[in-house]
Batch of 4 targets.
Target 1
Amino acid sequence: MGSLNIESVKKAFGPVEVLKGINLEVNDGEFVVFVGPSGCGKSTLLRVIAGLEDSTSGRVVIDGQDVSATPPAKRGIAMVFQTYALYPHLTVRNNMGLGLKQAGTPGAEIERRIGIASSMLSLEPYLERRPAELSGGQRQRVAIGRAVVREPKLFLFDEPLSNLDAALRVNTRLEIAQLHRRLKATMIYVTHDQVEAMTLADKIVVLNAGRIEQIGGPMELYNSPANEFVAGFIGSPKMNFVDGARLGETAKTIGVRPEHLTVDPTSGSWKGTVVHAEHLGADTNLYLDCEKAGLITVRIFGVYDAEPGATLYATPDPAKTYRFGADGKVLK
Amino acid sequence: MSTATRSLPRTIGAHAILLTYTAIALAPVILVIMNSFKSRAGIFGAPLTPPTPKTFDLIGYTTVIGQGDFIHYFQNSLVVTVASLFFVLLFGAMAAFALSEYRFRGNSLMGLYLALGIMIPIRLGTVAILQLMVASGLVNTLTALILVYTAQGLPLAVFILSEFMKQVSDDLKNAGRIDGLSEYTIFFRLVLPLVRPSMATVAVFTMIPIWNDLWFPLILAPSEETKTVTLGAQLFLGQFVTNWNAILAALSLAIMPVLILYIIFSRQLIRGITSGAVK
């Protein structure tokens, strides 16, 4: 109970086309993450699914029912917003209960569901407080609780972690992952952070300029990106792209991930000088200015001592090198 | 006691300027109230001195209260002001919400049209308004005044409120939509409480000119039953003899209701004026 089908959905604001025909299928219980750079249309797509924006054309089908003309409250969805969007004049309890009250759910049932949700999110001590008396992390938990209470077919998350600080973000990410495991509900999650996408998703949808670039599991996108955009977007630090002609290759662009390069002070394929070294403890990022390949990033696991100005040779792992054609697509 | 951010001469200078301004602003009001408690001879003999036991006289107030109708004039003023204020805030906020919240063709043009009234004084249209009121049989009714004042107050209200409504988080309104709240509930329960400070600002700016207006009561509703306080006070202004005691007493009394309304709104008002600047 919670499948979603999006059929050639288009959305235009005046002359600007934000979504250029989106087709997507989400199965029951899946955790799907929409990821892409800002302005790629991921939030708009989420709003179309929620019913907060009308699509210009196309259909949104939830659980086999065309909901394109159904108001948000009747779609069986719940949404968690980036800015929490709690009702400032209501207590935590009433914030969570309002949607159900509005739908005419009996009081006892509302209480029962608030009880379950608040114990799940350890919100019991705060039930009688107002949002202004809570910290950022607590507010976001209340917002998640408000969604849980509705027992929706579809959870929608709109960059829920962006307003939290780094430590809290990791905790809340974990909580959302556990929540998904417990509820086994279908969740759709929008983020621009590829780490969130990789850690949470069953299925990642990479969007760019209003189009879906690729759909797949985290490892699928990492190991076999369909095109240059996905290859560059997934993985951190970013994949190195080298002009094929400079290496004497037939492909337009050669891509190799920083972690798939090895360095040696004496010999290797690409000779270069160290421009900058970032020591992160667990690994080291080196920026090399190579004669053949230009500026590339190399990620070395563990500590590696390299002074700027030193000469190093970088060698790509031939099995993990990607070749892209003139249209940006991967050449097999 | 100089610190990095303030020095003594500067503090004194700033306070001197502010105190001078306060004195200038308050002097006429104090003069009116002071003289309203004096006898006629006291007013003319020494207008700038406070009432002494010799000059103290409540004749002004007894005349005003004894005039009987004056309570009625007050009532009229209050009805007109409160009703106009209510409609200005209600319709102003609704229009502002529509302008800031919904995308529709001609949105910005509509906003400009609604704000046009700020630049064009409504009194230019007095003749047309009078004709309209005569034609619709509203002359000498409080309804006429309420309608005119509502129209007069709306442009500024729409202009100020739509700026503030744009700042209300979209996510909050959308959360309400997902929870099944109607657009009216979202407007009244979620948005209005958040723009309350700016509503108070608009209320004060709207209220004072309405309460003090002489022009429209004189033209549209000069009858005995519909006279407002400012018009009623004219009763004591004669061509040959002016009853200064009564006029000053009437004016002193007329200050009170606005003052009370102002105090109610002022706490919110200060937040309204600064909230746009700081956050």
Target 2
Amino acid sequence: MTESFLAPKIVIINTRAANVHSVDKALRKVGANPVITSDPEELASADAAVLPGVGASDAVMTALNSLRLTDPVKQFAASGRPLLCICIGLQVLFNSSEEGDLPGLGLVQGSVKLIPPGMKDKLGNKMKVPHIGWNEVHFTHGETERNPIFRGIPQGSHFYFVHSYRCVPDEQSEVAATANYGVEVCAAVVRRNVIGTQFHPEKSGSIGLQIYKNFFNLCFSTKNNENQPMAN
Amino acid sequence: MLTRRIIPCLDVDAGRVVKGVSFVDIQDAGDPAALAAFYNAEGADELVFLDITASSDERNTMVDVVEKVSSEVFIPLTVGGGIRSVDDMRKMLEAGADKVSINSAAVINPQLIEECAKEFGSQCVVLAMDVKRNSDETTKRNNASEIAEGISWQVYTHGGRKPTTLDATQWARKATECGAGELLVTSMDADGQKTGYDNNVLSQIADSVTVPVIASGGAGALEHFYDALVYGKSDAVLAASLFHFGELRVSEVKSYLESRGIPVRKVE
């Protein structure tokens, strides 16, 4: 990595989701100076972007469509610049979701399905949907070393989840991490420069901030080594 | 495996925490951000801030509190007290709250739950309910493991001052149908008694809804947390003064629960 002091421009895509501000605060905590925007031109000029989202996938897709951000987000992803997608931000990367009627961005092939309700845990209690709380995350083999976004995150770390639907990528190799909630829940997806987490790193304490720190570092290195392709 | 959550609750009056932590040396025990940082370090899985400010002109101070706390502490934050509209809720969420709890306002106008859930998603909407047993006959405490049949609970509003005609379980079901994503159930009978959570009402409610239930009111000893999670079938346990006065530490509760086979998040 070449040493550089050129700070990357990180844009938080304003889907009007409730976690936009939490993502902003987490990035600021690790030293970034992000811009919250729904302006396609701002996005186009960014070095990296975050797509947050909570609530319902149709709400995020409706926001992207009405703000004319759908194609700009796709173009951004295709450009190779880092794109971090959180929770519903991850789910809208897929082709479709059982939750909504609107098609997703189709940046990751696969679908989003309801977590089957009514299963029991080992204490015999009903497992609730939504899946709310801190769950253990297992990175697929070598992911923590191979992918800079997960550097320094111990296997089995707890992250905070809030969701009712789970992502099912067609390509198993794109599953970067999983969690167990009766069924296997896809906890993170990595497809080249597009990274998505089902959990909320901005709400997962210091271990979650580590992911934002890694993301910030990644933005630095991709900005300053533009000719160097990213890992994977 | 999903862990059970331990949640300290802090009362805030005009921007200051009342009954703040008194057992460790925090420079300003009334500073919400300092206390939030303390509980975060202790391993709290989530925090609840309850605005008990009486005068409405000071209500905006809570927005500043949430703004400050959420800039420094990165665990889920629920804010309650005095939320009466979608706009009230938006203010808190924009300031950095992850969830907002509504209580009396939802009883007066159940549509509020629906409006908030539609606007922000169910995961943001916590329905808080204060419940009291209907019959004195059954108020003698059951063993934690004996879940009694045939008892009912009534919902109260305005901090337990006003009785309603609502049955606790029916209200719980109705609220989740309207879109509440979690229920925070406080037993007025158990609250402050330190003899344990009311596992009867907790399990009855947990059995009748599909969303997570947070147990509140009555914690006094380590086993009470276990009982609420196992017999009360709760997903999370909340306590206030027990933690503030250092009678038990969050970390102690977690080690205890772990030793009894309850999955908890390891304290970093």
Target 3
Amino acid sequence: MDFSFSKEQELLRKTVREFVEAEVAPMAAKWDEEDHCPVEVFRKMGELGFAGVFVPAEYGGAGLGYTERAIILEEVARHSAGLAMFLMTHQLCVAAILEFGNEDQKKKYLPGLASGKKIGALSVTEPTGGSDLANHQTTGELADGWWVLNGRKCFASNSSNADVTVVTAKTGTDEKGRNVLTAFIVESGNPGLSPGRKESKFGLRVSVMGDLVLNNCKVPPESILGGQGKGQRVALGTISEVGRAGMSAISLGIIRACLEDMVKFAKERNLYGKPISTLQAVQFSIAETRVDYEAARLLTYKALALKDAKQRCDLDFTIAKYFSTEAAVRAAKRNMDNMGGYGVLNDYPAGRYLRDALATLPSAGTSNIMKVIVAANTLG
Amino acid sequence: MSGLKIAVCIKPVPSPDQYHRVGIDPRTKTLVREGIPTVINPLDKNALEAALQIREKCGGTVAAISMAPPAAEENLREALAMGADEAYLLSDRAFAGSDTLATSMVLAAAVKKLGPVDLVLTGNESADGGTAQVSAQLGEWLGYPHLMHACGLEVMEDGFIRVDTAREDCRVAYRVKLPAVVSVVRTINKPRFTSLMGVIAAGKKPLSVWTSGDLPVDENFLGLEGSPTKAGDIYQPDLSRRCELLEGSAGEIAGAVLQKLRAAGLQL
């Protein structure tokens, strides 16, 4: 087993970090406070290859893998988990088209998405729930050679700024009466597609989240992604691997932010005439956070290695996502505890880390859903 | 003018977040940097950016050169990822402890070996040693005209370049015949960010390692022994602090503070 990153991956991390420290870190608190989504920074990330990191060069991407994608997300999330969420959601659309699209769809959509000229989104969740696909209310009906989509999506990231959105709709029922879903690619500008209300979140604020309304939204049959009736596969396949990988990587960035800030604060803050880093209680807290980071890192990058080797990895991502997001919350809480009164001041990012960490919990499936999946697999 | 062959000198310097680990060898009186993560000297990135902009406008090639320990391969790969076409690592135990004169001699030998180089660019000074001597010495070794503090650089039609240099209260423009050595300051440009495509391409670009045996150098002028610079005294200042509590009314405390500042030599 080789647990080291390649020299190329290390160089990639270094160059991404350089960009993030220069272009993201100085603005992260302001974006969070104003709930501003910096599309101009996303465009720059697109030019540098971040948006289409795992897209083959023939479709305009960097031609790397999902491991490199996670390195980028971790580095961006180190300073702005909200911006990383924006990028992560965009890449769900990219991954869905890359993994389930036909050649025409790949050629049509991937170059724009990979270069960051277009923003992508994947919208599945409805008011009835994100994991309860059996109760999907959005419908797709074939009429006069066009598919007509009607329904409302909620908790949709990039709801109002996406140029290309993959949506799921119920297009029939199977012999047991269960919903049959189909995934469609819908472009902004379609008169039947409109963003609904934008939600006000307490965490991951930079990333836009809101409703998406499909009102007699007509799309041609060529918009079907992954085949008619294969929507569940497209949605779950993308979310369970690419989505959970993304949330794990974002959580890694948050944990590292907490750890680095904890170390800095502990060395600089003096109490009883000496730095608090000499206090065992603080040392334990830092040690626990370091262990959380290392464990989350191993789980996440192990799952990614499987994904890049095209091996089954859905359970590995479920475990990684559950552990990493919960670990991020623990780390953010410890960071706040160690800072005492300073931890609640908005002059410091401690509160933002905690808000962002808590907001990672429901994305791509709550911790309870993760445990249901792990338990089902373990019990057999 | 088209197709300039440009060499850019790259120096690895300790990463700014690791400065606390940089020490001074009391015997050799040189900086101890071993084992400390490095970055490309920031001004050398400006030099590389200037070279890349010239190449984009006029064509040609850009070679990155570094005299450093083997670990500097990482820094040169970064230069390749940023856009350099080829890289040369001048690495040999015999180079260890070189002062600026010995360093510039080795760099000059490498430039000569590259063939007819039109322009050599360097950062004005390094973030660690900060002597700002290498570029001028390089120009002397090569016999090329050399200029420092370049804040503007433009290739002209007739084998000349225009170099704007920064002064305290003005800019002075020079028309310089190529080949030449120019060192740049931060204001000349903003170095580009490295793209992922650049990182991938870097792995396929040539990176050669040259030792003293590969270069036309006089071994008597190599390394610590061959370096004429001898540091007189060098020490780490005592930066420990001491706290003194002042008591009394606000006015009394302010007066006491003023008195202590004056006693410490401040002209108030």
Target 4
Amino acid sequence: MHMLYMIFIDPFMQMAQAPDLFAQTLWDGLVAGVLYALIALGFVLIFKASGVFNFAQGIMVVFAALTLVGLHDAGLNAFLALALTIGVMFILAFTVERAVLRPLVNQPDIILFMATFGITYVLIGFGEYVFGGDPKVMPTDAFYLPKGAITYHTLGGMVQFQKLDIAAAIVASIMVAGLAVFFSKTRIGRALRAVADSHEAALSVGISLEQIWVIVWFAAGLVALVTGIFWGARSDVSFALEVIALKALPVLILGGFTSVPGAIVGGLIIGLGEKLFEFYWGPLMGGGTDAWFAYVIALVFLLFRPQGLFGEKIIERI
Amino acid sequence: MLYREAGQFKTDYASDQAIFPILQDRIGLAVILAVAILLPFANNDFLTNAVMIPFMIFTLAAIGLNLLTGYTGLLSLGTGAFMGVGAYACYKLTSIFPNVNILIWVLCSGFFAAAVGTVFGLPSLRIKGFYLAIATLAAQFFLEWCFIRVSWLYNYNISGAIEVPQRTLFGIIVTGPRATAETRYYIVLGFLVLMTWAASNVVHGRIGRSWMAVRDMDIAAELMGIRLLPTKLLAFAVSSFYCGVAGALMVFLWYGGAEPTVFNINQSFTILFMIIIGGLGSLLGAYLGAALIFILPIVLRFAPEVLGLHIHAATVEHITYITTGVLIIFFLIAEPAGLARLWQVGKQKLRVWPFPY
Amino acid sequence: MRAPTNGPDVAAGDVLLAVENVSLSFGGVRAVSDVSFDIRKGEIRAIIGPNGAGKTSMLNVINGFYHPQEGRITFKGQTRPKMRPYEAADGGIARTFQNVALFRGMTALDNIMAGRSLKMNKSFFWQLLRYGPAMQEEVEHRARVEEIIDFLKIQEIRRIPVGRLPYGLQKRVELGRALAMEPELLLLDEPMAGMNLEEKEDMSRFILDVNDHYGTTIALIEHDMGVVMDLSDRVVVLDHGEKIADGTPDEIKSNQAVIDAYLGVAH
């Protein structure tokens, strides 16, 4: 009886009694959600255009951030470092297309998926080899990232908004809007959508698959870089982020693998859900529930809607 | 010239259905077994303790994952956690019943892993492919969390780790710090040989065929009367059983103790890479893959010293990462069916030598 | 031949399977509407019609892969509610597919052996040992499978993974796999699609032999009219999901509705 009370009543009592804490938790959840959504976004880009389930997207985030910080630490001017990092992401996209995607074209999806494991390992090894394995600190000042927090005294207490988080949310929104314009208004964007619909059909109207793949992997690399900057600014830059990057997968389950809005909504749901659950229900179970909550939610969700929030129902044919 | 089947006529279906129909294969297998049995007499502790025991344990886990992913086509990223279930089950069982033969508990811990694996396999009826991989991630992270947070599992040790107690069998110490490498080697070898034999029997019979049928074309399999859910769940159960036993062996006969991090997501990936490189859907592949992925870092660690170079340990680790990654990509491009397929091709070439085909 | 596992025995010439007023739609798109016909024991029944007429959907309904929204199906005297595909298989319905649906990673022999899964029942324990009853069962069924391999003349490809076989042989292995189930009703979805004349003649011969030799009832979808008219006892014609004709090949040949459907006369 007491247990039921603790599970079903007490958390909501707490929410009502301390609305400021509730609001703060909501905000923290949303911020985490934005970051998950950004990783998932890079993932969706690649999946849409090449059908590759890119396991390496999370590592690309870390790799991009590590390259940026590493170059900056080596004494380069911040913006030169940024430009060089963008160059590195392009080289990465180009290399992946040449060395991995092109030789594996027309292989089953699962083979391509496993190949991205290979990319993951190469990136981890290469990143640590070049820049060392120690956690690094993102030079926020050098990139003119805002610091400090805005504090509101409302709801019988106070709610803090980190300026950095606000900036991240704004940049994320701009990036999503930019991608939407890119997909619908530009020639390359339209070609990209054509490729997503059917590889053969795209080839038959003279779209070069190789070019498209380099472009999407590069775009995903840029998304990874932006994600990496904001993520790195909130915590250290190290490959320990890898585990957190896996959270993009449950996000994709919720949002569907091909939907950009799905990635955003999924990311926010997961971010909010796990923060609220950890804050109000976590203590009952000894804490640390955010390690698995996202996956369990995704699993439960899958059982009822295997095609995701925005995916279409699949009719099997034989 | 030596590797020929000419003159070996089969006169009944029983001998044609045998797993090694060719005489030379059977001789080769006998030789390998003999070498494995005689190996501890080389008196090289490093070889038995640091190379062979872990290699065999990894092979066992790789066989387990291969039954699920290679034979049944269900991708799992939860191998590490299922191994953990075996290890913790074995630890609890021998803590509660210290007088029961430890080897029985190792085997029983496999059943606990099988039960947990089956529960997490339930979504496989509705979920396929990548989606299922994410469902198994839920198992991985949830179980890992349990290993950390449920202190009953590690007998409330302050360190949060499990320490393997000393257990004897017929007066010989088999677990704990005082057990000799030879004893542990033979026990692990025994488990590996018996369980490989059993796995080989299963995959060559009705059950193995229904697993592969589900993997290759699940709709057609269902229309032929193969029930999907029981077939997939059996694959989950058997696979987890193998992983669980491997986990128990790993802690009890290799590490001698373990923290939850031993069973983390990286362990799952390591085993997965073993079967990708070794060959999906091949028991031999589990051996070859485990050998390559486990022994490669050891070679990389010692090769520079032998060559007189001094390379930092961390650098070696990075190079190992890169090499593993490149190897995965290389194998997927050159031979998606893995080392096992290369072996078969080589054998076929030998059979028809000196003719090309 | 094995006795039916459920339902009463059906004598030759009786109705083995009856489809009554079956309708099937996918999210508003009608694939089959209000179709009725029957299949008699021992006959070869052809289902024909232009592309998109709902022929494959009809087969999918018969073996329980799709569940029709309306109508009912009576098989061996039993009218079934919703049925799962494995129940259809258990009841004696086997099937081949329009685009070969073999187990590509398995050898031809293993594919056909897999067709006997339902008839093998030795427990997991014996399977672990691959000894005693399990081995005995394996050998027994191997002998039956070898008969089918001889019958289809595919001895030399036994050990080859089917993914590497040419299309015509794949079709033959698939027929073998269906035959291994010893079905009472065999559904063939375009068994001769993409074959040359010689292969078609071979396949026709196999189909007739199966019908003669094992007494298996056959329902087949085929586009080659020559083949359909030669092989089948009765023909049902579907167009846009509706039945437009039903009768002997001669009746169908002279049926105006059928000619219109095929030549595309404006309705």
